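R.M. (postdoc): so does anyone remember the format we settled on? I'll just put the structure tokens first.
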């Protein structure tokens, strides 16, 4: 791997109760987060292809870890999302280089499909920042029950010359969804929308 990784953190969240109601089966989501060295911290670089390659590597590594944390086969995953935070000596384009050009293909491969765009967010911040990872159904963006997000945090990341990169995966939608729209049973999964 070309990324210099300081640490990897995996988080699993399981919701069993919501508004005094049992959630059965519980909704679960997992995020795998890597804290990596930013090779371009503190300088402008025109060619960001090394970060694009790192994004491809991290897409596979982090999605495999998130799926393993849920204890499911990748094809059973429902939703996905990705996010990155660059430290103060980085720029948003560093996060974009990791998240956008090549990260998606290996994530989709681990999950067995993924017709929908992978929701993403990026920001510049310091240690202890919160990453809000947007989530959406992997095969149909219009499934409202899966419009969600997962918040993760690492107390000492990102440092000034680091990038914190996360991939989140779920085995379900929100707990107790009831705002209508396309249901999971109605998904065609052909165009990434419905």
């Amino acid at each position: 791997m070309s990324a210099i990784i300081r640490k990897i953190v995996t988080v699993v969240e399981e919701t069993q109760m919501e508004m005094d109601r049992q959630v059965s089966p519980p909704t679960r989501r997992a995020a795998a987060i890597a804290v990596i060295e930013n090779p371009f911290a503190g300088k402008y670089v025109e060619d960001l292809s090394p970060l694009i390659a790192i994004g491809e590597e991290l897409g596979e590594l982090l999605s495999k870890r998130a799926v393993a944390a849920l204890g499911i086969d990748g094809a059973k995953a429902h939703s996905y999302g990705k996010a990155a935070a660059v430290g103060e000596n980085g720029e948003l384009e560093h996060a974009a280089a990791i998240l956008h050009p090549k990260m998606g293909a290996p994530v989709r491969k681990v999950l067995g499909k993924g017709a929908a765009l992978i929701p993403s967010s990026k920001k510049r911040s310091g240690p202890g920042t919160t990453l809000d990872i947007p989530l959406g159904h992997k095969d149909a963006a219009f499934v409202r029950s899966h419009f969600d997000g997962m918040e993760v945090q690492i107390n000492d990341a990102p440092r000034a010359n680091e990038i914190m990169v996360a991939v989140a995966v779920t085995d379900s939608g929100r707990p107790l969804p009831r705002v209508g729209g396309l249901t999971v049973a109605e998904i065609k999964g052909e165009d990434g929308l419905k």
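R.M.: ...and that's the designed sequence above, right after the tokens. Also worth knowing: The longest helix spans residues 49-70. The chain has a mean pLDDT of 96.
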